[in-house]
Amino acid sequence: MISKELVQSRDSRTILINNMSKEDQEYLREKYQLTTEMLIYAKDLRERARVEYDQPTQSWIMIYNAVAENFSRPVSPIAIVIRDKNVFVFTRTETQYIQNYFSKIDNTKLHIPLTHQTIWEMVFNALYQITTDFFDQIEELNAQRQELETEIRNSPNNDHIFELADLTKAMVYMLTSANSNTMAIESFKLYNRRLGILDLSQLEYERLDDVLIEARQAQQMAQLTSDITNKVADTYNNLIGNTTNNVMRFLTIYSIVLTIPTIVTGFYGMNVDLPLADSPFSWLFVVVIMVGIIWFMWWQMKRHHFF
């Protein structure tokens, strides 16, 4: 659905499309001559973050990862197409909030209304805000990790395994997306430097550098949080392993202790002549033998640090 068509200047528009339908695709093809390839890129949920320049149509295609709201994954790609001084922003339900970054005053910089910005200033400002959204999401995941770590220290249980798995999976998505965004911005700068297509102003270059700096910072934060989460998961796995070892050690000792009386009483249960078998104190003799052997086994295990 085409949410808005904002007039930026006499020959420039910003078209915001959310959950693009077939009717939207036909409209964009006919009125703005967007190619089928562009629309496929914009609709693909699995598209990786990157920047491409389409020479025949002289259009820029930007795929960028954004934080997703109420979605099975913490991130989701959006698409930005710049063609003939028009900017097309493709979002989905989980990333629809990003349309506000293209339709409201830029709050991150000089509070310049969007109608007074160039196309690339507007795009870079929006990318800046999208990138800084990663910080809040990473901090939230980091807080969940700290809370989970405290619970594991106090009373570990099986539910923590699933929580750790979900947290680790979320961090993989965040880290991969942050890496892809950084590579996309770096490739855009390299692409433009090689081809010399865009004649960006100093302010536009500064905005682009700001985006790259924030993307790298998000990348580092995601990497750090991911590493710590993996360490916590490894520690919890070691804790489970130690618990299993302790249980097996206890069962081994218990089985050895129970085996000794069985062996001794088995001997004295045979129909053969045994020492003191006819004595009225034979039962006491059997008990002494069992206790003696048990004590000897306990002493040997203690001496070899078995427990």
TrEMBL record:
Listed transmembrane segments: 250-269, 281-299
GO CC term, one of those recorded: membrane
The answer to whether the entry has keyword Cell membrane is: no
- Stored InterPro entries: CorA-like (IPR047199), CorA_cytoplasmic_dom (IPR045861), CorA_TM1_TM2 (IPR045863), MgTranspt_CorA/ZnTranspt_ZntB (IPR002523)
| Mode of membrane association | Multi-pass membrane protein
Protein localization: Membrane
Q: What are the entry keywords?
A: Coiled coil, Membrane, Transmembrane, Transmembrane helix
Q: Which Gene3D superfamilies match?
A: Magnesium transport protein CorA, transmembrane region
Residues in a coiled coil are 131-158
Q: A Pfam family matched by this chain, by name?
A: CorA
CDD domains noted in UniProt: EcCorA_ZntB-like_u2
Source domain of life is Bacteria
List, in alphabetical order, the Gene Ontology terms for molecular function in this entry.
metal ion transmembrane transporter activity
**Keyword flag Transmembrane:** yes
UniProt similarity note: Belongs to the CorA metal ion transporter (MIT) (TC 1.A.35) family.
Q: What is this protein called?
A: Magnesium transporter CorA family protein
What lineage does the source organism belong to?
Answer: Bacteria, Bacillati, Bacillota, Bacilli, Lactobacillales
